[in-house]
């Protein structure tokens, strides 16, 4: 009996040493690849996620993001995504700006681009590094691995909270005590058994700075987001005309919105990004609306080469810029808006009509309306109706 117990103890000790060595190895690899944080959790560490996701979807708060509902089962449970996973490693990479990104909102002639999109696409930056780590780890551990960066049905924020990277704040985004709201996340799933970290606790307290900062009241309650009212969703994910209710509230935000992130008091502990590929390009910090209105498809693709902005396409992008133009109050943009009112894209033509209605004197807009071409697109006809010229 003593021999059997001793043998079992030896096996347990051997297994523990293996977990410790593999855990230390992956942390060293994360540091070598420039990640700021690396923590580990189990695939069963987010038991409340399925219910929260179900509520979010049942209330329609995902808007037109049908892929969220289509991947509901795999998204809610890491084991449903990959049944063999035993450990999940979460990585955090700081992308903090060197100044408050809300400063540009007081400059209506300039366009506000979300901090995360002012340089290289973070998916490319992070995934390349995760693949390097995965290759080396698989060779060392003799285990299977898979890496994910945002595009797969992985609930990275709840997993990151369970792993101890931070907690999901009232704005539903991850908040770190060391990096505030400015963290990109990536994950590595593996069949290896690793040493897990303790989860982070919620440190929001009674603060509601992020909720109060939202221009469109997109938070029906703390820790709940209605994407249909979120400027990031409207300017990036939403493909058609943007509801007239939200256009004046969008201001000069042409791609995403950082207001709730920037308002978080925990950002006072965050440093600016050290990775050069994530630091803002000078020409994307405050581009002029007049310049962006000139971009045809080729120029758009060239200017935003390597940027995540490129993924929404020129037409949706110019739609956003026209909203900013209409909110600018600058009559110098009328000429460009008139040209775009005859653009091949219906969504561009429709938003140009809205911008012109706001920028032109009533009598000038009335004369312009009399010269309009016969419009077949129902969305553009609706814009004329809303403008009082239907």
Automatic annotation (TrEMBL):
Domain of life: Bacteria
SUPFAM superfamilies hit by this protein: alpha-helical ferredoxin, ARM repeat
Residues noted as binding [4Fe-4S] cluster 1 in the record, renumbered to the chain: 204, 207, 210, 264
Subcellular location: Cytoplasm
The name this protein goes by in its record: Epoxyqueuosine reductase
Domain 4Fe-4S ferredoxin-type: 192-224
Main subcellular location: cytoplasm
Cofactor note: Binds 2 [4Fe-4S] clusters per monomer.
Cofactor: [4Fe-4S] cluster; cob(II)alamin
Annotated GO MF terms: 4 iron, 4 sulfur cluster binding; cobalamin binding; epoxyqueuosine reductase activity; metal ion binding
Catalytic machinery residues: 150
């Amino acid at each position: 009996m003593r021999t059997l117990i001793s043998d079992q103890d030896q096996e347990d000790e051997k297994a523990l040493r293996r977990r410790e060595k593999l855990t230390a190895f992956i942390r060293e690899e994360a540091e070598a690849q420039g990640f700021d944080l690396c923590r580990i959790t189990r695939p069963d560490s987010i038991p409340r996620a399925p219910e929260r996701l179900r509520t979010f979807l049942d209330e329609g708060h995902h808007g037109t993001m049908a892929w969220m509902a289509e991947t509901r089962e795999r998204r809610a449970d890491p084991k449903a995504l990959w049944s063999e996973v035993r450990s999940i490693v979460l990585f955090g990479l700081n992308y903090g700006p060197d100044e408050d990104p809300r400063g540009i909102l007081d400059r209506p002639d300039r366009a506000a681009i979300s901090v995360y999109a002012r340089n290289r696409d973070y998916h490319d930056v992070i995934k390349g590094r995760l693949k390097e780590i995965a290759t080396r780890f698989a060779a060392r551990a003799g285990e299977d691995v898979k890496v994910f960066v945002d595009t797969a049905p992985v609930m990275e924020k709840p997993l990151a909270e369970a792993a101890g990277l931070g907690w999901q704040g009232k704005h539903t985004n991850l908040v770190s005590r060391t990096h505030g709201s400015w963290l990109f996340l990536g994950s590595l799933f593996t069949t290896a058994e690793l040493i897990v970290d303790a989860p982070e606790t919620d440190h929001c307290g009674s603060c509601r700075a992020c909720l109060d900062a939202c221009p469109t009241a997109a938070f029906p309650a703390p820790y709940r987001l209605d994407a249909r009212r979120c400027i990031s969703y409207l300017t990036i994910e939403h493909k058609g005309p943007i509801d007239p209710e939200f256009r004046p509230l969008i201001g000069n935000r042409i791609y995403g919105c950082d207001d709730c992130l920037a308002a978080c008091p925990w950002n006072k502990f965050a440093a600016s990004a050290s990775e050069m590929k994530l630091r803002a390009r000078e020409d994307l910090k405050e581009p002029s609306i007049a310049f962006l209105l000139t971009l045809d498809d080729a120029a758009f693709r060239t200017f935003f080469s390597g940027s995540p902005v490129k993924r929404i396409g020129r037409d949706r992008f110019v739609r956003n810029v026209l909203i900013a133009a209409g909110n600018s109050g600058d009559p110098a943009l009328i000429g460009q808006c008139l040209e775009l009112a005859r653009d091949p894209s219906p969504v561009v033509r429709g938003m140009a009509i809205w911008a012109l209605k706001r920028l032109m004197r009533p009598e000038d807009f009335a004369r312009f309306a009399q010269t309009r071409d016969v419009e077949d697109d129902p969305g553009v006809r609706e814009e004329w109706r809303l403008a009082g010229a239907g």
